[in-house]
UniProtKB/TrEMBL annotation:
The keyword Ligase does not apply. SMART domains: LRR_RI. One of its GO terms (cellular component) is perinuclear region of cytoplasm. PANTHER family: RAN GTPASE-ACTIVATING PROTEIN 1. This is Uncharacterized protein. InterPro entries: Leu-rich_rpt, LRR_dom_sf, RanGap. Keywords: GTPase activation, Leucine-rich repeat, Repeat. GO terms for molecular function: GTPase activator activity; small GTPase binding. GO terms for biological process: nucleocytoplasmic transport. Pfam families: LRR_6. It comes from the Eukaryota. It comes from Adineta steineri. Coiled coil: none annotated.
Amino acid sequence: MTNVCQRFNSIVNSYGRYQTLTTLLLSRNEIEDDEEQHLADELIPHTTLTTVDLESNQTIEVGAQHLANALKHNKTLTTLKLSVDEIEEDEAKHLADAFKYNMTLTTLDLSDNKIGEVGAQHLADALKHNRTLTTLDLSDNKIGEVGIKYFVAALKDNMTLTTLDLSTNQIRHVGTRHLANALKHNTTLTTLKLSQDGIGEVGAKDLADALKHNMILTALYLSGNEIGEVGVQYFVDALKHNTTLTTLQFAANLIGDVGAQHLADALQHNTTLTTLHLWRNQIGNVGVQYLADSLQYNTTLTTLHLSENRIQDVGAQYLADALEHNTTLTSLALSYNETSSGMNMEISRLIERNKRGRKP
């Protein structure tokens, strides 16, 4: 990508209609340091640009310095995407320094980089000063158990962050415990993503205990954490106390029929959960029968994902029978099970009926 940013500057300066440009998408363009400097120089005086996407450009230290300098002065940018950019701890430090001064950025995507625990410390320190960032994606960054402790400290001071994605960072049960303790006191975070973090049963217990106290969190993503049927029981107990959680992503957690039974018991009494993801959980006909029975009593769940399980026509019939009485479920995913096309059509018919019934 030769001199792409210089050409961008030329276009913006030459044509008046581009003076109101709000979104710039430059992902996967192999932007080099000098080109990133041109872009950074343009960002400083620009008064309309609100979104910049630089995904997969392998931003190295010099390029990160240019961007950081621009962020210290830019007054309009609200969304910056730097995922898959080979950002490590040095680049993270430059960006973190900028966030201490930038008061307009609300969404930052640094997913799939290599910031590590040192980079995490720099960003966490910045969160103690920043008062505008609401969404931060740090998934797949090798933060680990040590790095998560820095964010726990930051969450005590930060009063603006509402969405935090720490998936695929191997924080394990030790890091989860630190985070769970922070959740008991945090009053702003509404969405937390911890998929594929090696949480296990022990970490599940700590998170579930936190949910008994936290009445702010509305969405929790925990797929691929080997929580199992024992771990799911902890969350069932928590749902008896929690009155704010509306989305629970529990996919690929080996809960089986027993875990499905535990969740079914919770659904009979819970009145806030609207979305439940249980795909790839080894749930068979027995487990789905428990879930189907709960749907005859539950009046709040609107979305249930059961794809990639072990459900056959017998189990699907339980769901169909439940839908004869349930009028609130409007999305039911059963793909990649062992159900026939005829049964799938019957389920679809009942779901479509519910959708029509919800229309004014």
